[in-house]
Amino acid sequence: MSAACKADQRTFTVIRIDTQAENLEIFLRDESGAPFHRLDRLAAWLKARNRELRFAMNAGMFHRDFSPVGLLVQEGRQVAPLNLAEGAGNFFLKPNGVFFIGAAGPRIVASEEYPALSGGVRLATQSGPLLVRRGVIHPVFRAVSSSRLIRNGVGVSGNLAVFVISEQPVTFYELATYFRDQLNCPDALYLDGVVSSLHSAELGRTDVKVDLGPIIGVAR
After folding, report:
1. How many structural domains compose the chain?
2. 68, 149, 173, 202: which could form a disulfide with 141 (CB 3.0–4.6 Å)?
3. DSSP character for 179?
């Protein structure tokens, strides 16, 4: 696991997870069925079980009851189905996509492609839109845009799952370009904006902004 920051004005914080060496997990609810909501609460829950949360980030969009809007797979078990519906909002800005880890390592694919690849998947989360798909930035993004938010996403580069959160408001295009051109990620998926949160033991950071739905992380 490694952390790095873009040199110009600390625009982005980057966490790289070697999926062959580290075990990414999805966290949603505790044993009583209550959502974890916050990264610090998840860290405390794990600590009580003699585990240390090394990294965590919000893992995709969620409904008002904190259930995921789209597909969620935890430890090989599907807890929410793939969502191929049409709708309004970023999640439904097609193509959207799925980040997953299977026997071949981490991948990001368009949601429609996932069913044919779902065998043996250990972890998956669906979100949208796809920032970058096969090296091409999402066609609706514009280099000049007034929509600037704190945003986060995940990309894939070989066996690395590359998680990024912006440290200042950025456009979709800026985030997508950073994944493709600076981080060499041919595929990248938007996770969310505004609620974007990061826990990093290495950086001594735990964001507490709003209640979250699914959380992705590494605990030892």
Report:
1. 1
2. 173
3. I
